[in-house]
Amino acid sequence: MEQTLSIIKPDAVAKGFIGKIIDRFESNGLRIAGMKKLHLSTKQAEDFYAVHKDRPFYADLVKFMSSGPVVVMVLEGENAVLKNRELMGATNPKEADKGTIRADFAQSIEANAVHGSDSLENAKNEVAFFFDGHEIL
Ligand code: ADP
Ligand code: MG
Fold first, then answer.
1. Helix, strand, coil percentages for the chain (3-state, nearest 5)
2. Quick check: helix, strand or coil at residue 42?
3. Does any ligand 1 atom lie closer than 6 A to the CB of residue 115?
4. What is the pLDDT of residues 20-66, one digit of tens each?
5. Model's pTM, two decimal places?
6. In the annotation, is 52 catalytic?
7. Which among 51, 57, 88 is the best mutation to test ligand 1's pocket, defined by most ligand atoms within 8 Å of the CB?
8. Which of 6, 47, 85, 108 could form a disulfide with 73 if both were Cys (CB 3.0 to 4.6 A apart)?
9. CA dist 134 to 31, 118, 122, Å?
């Protein structure tokens, strides 16, 4: 069993896609082990995406991720990290496979509906960024 972090980003929350996106996880063997709705501060968004701080899109990404509420979740299941990445689709929704979350719910390479941890090690760090142990059930 693995755990991974998922974020439903401000674009998808604003468009009312929370339920539809969660259904993709629950229908594909990923259990919601923890969940909360948050409005990230600039500092939280900066820290969460610190790995991208030298990329040209970093400032815009931080602004976007703190522009409105998000839903953060701990997803649990077999191969949860990879399974979530497969369900999400490619970063650029125009390149995402048919039937993936980003193909169906995202607008642009920045406002791309969901975040998902990209490795087991990052998943552990990202889960710990948002959740205390007692919030994961
Ligand atoms: P992913 O979310 O698929 O793991 P990355 O980790 O490479 O993608 O990038 C993190 C986030 O930064 C993306 O989900 C997207 O919101 C934003 N982003 C990535 N590349 C670009 C880009 N070229 N222009 C604008 N925003 C981008
Ligand atoms: Mg990434």
1. 45, 20, 35
2. helix
3. yes
4. 999 999 999 999 999 999 999 999 999 999 999 999 999 999 999 99
5. 0.98
6. no
7. 57
8. 6
9. 17, 24, 20
